[in-house]
Amino acid sequence: MDMNQWIAELKRSRVKKALPILSFPGVQIIGKTVDQLIRDAGLQADCMKAIADKYPTLAAVSLMDLSVEAECFGSTVRFSEDEVPTVVGSIVRTPEDVAQLQVPGLDKGRAAVYIKAIRKAKEQIADRPVLAGVIGPFSLAGRLLDMTEIMVCCMDEPEMAHQLLEKATAFIIKYAQGFKDAGADGIVLAEPAAGLLSPGFNAEFSVPYVKQVVDALQDAGFIVVYHNCGPYTVQQIGDILHTGARMYHFGNAIDLGDMKPHIPEDVLFSGNVAPAEQFRNGTPESTREATEELLGKCGPCMNFIPSSGCDIPPMARFENIDAFFAAVEQYYC
Known about the structure:
The chain is of the alpha/beta class. It is 50% helix and 12% strand. It contains 17 helices and nine strands. Strand 2 and strand 3 form a beta hairpin.
């Protein structure tokens, strides 16, 4: 797929399709548990296809399981039948640990399962782009070291932080290249931990490494969608735009009305109906109202794509998801 043309058409079109980060709720359609899903490429593809059949999404997005990359490095992961896996503890603590840390191959952990799932999904979904989910460099480093410790490390031992980020970035590029080789049309690069950084630290410890990923992978047939759901993204946006990603996706920790003036008219931005508050725990009425409020602020922008604020939880209520899509359709009709 010519993704440059796809992006250009999105910018020109007055009527926008929604691009929620919507994949895990498909377990409810196919009758499987999250634990079964994250271990089986065929089930992941089936889950993506079930969502694509049910909703007119702008693109099909794979599972946003941000434990995969850390697990490949050797991190311990906590699994659950109905919740997304989470990383437990840390595997590096000292500069010596970081120096000895090896960048894993794609035969480690569940990386090969997720890459195979994209290949299978591309065989089943031909009417829209297929995007794979990948963690961002700073967010991966935080899982390997511990989020509190990586913040301290940036201040007290910046050389250690940079060395860890270099290794995290090397693996992310390798993993994303696996998705690209499998036929993915792009990735959603989730860098939520960077949203906790000051603008200066974000510019030093996240942006250059995200740019490495973008520069290594993005071309006419493959795009990078940058995601950050942190509370300081408005203050960081000037540097974030230097990553060169083709689309920027923001979480509901910020008001997109505040972000809008900072986004150039030729740059796509997206977000940000609250995943837990609305899609999981809201009502159809509250989800519709939240979507309408968002569209009232950003819908007139030709470069805006309506979305969820982050990954929609597995047990989200379909009546709320229905209300979101109905509100988007009604706004653009």
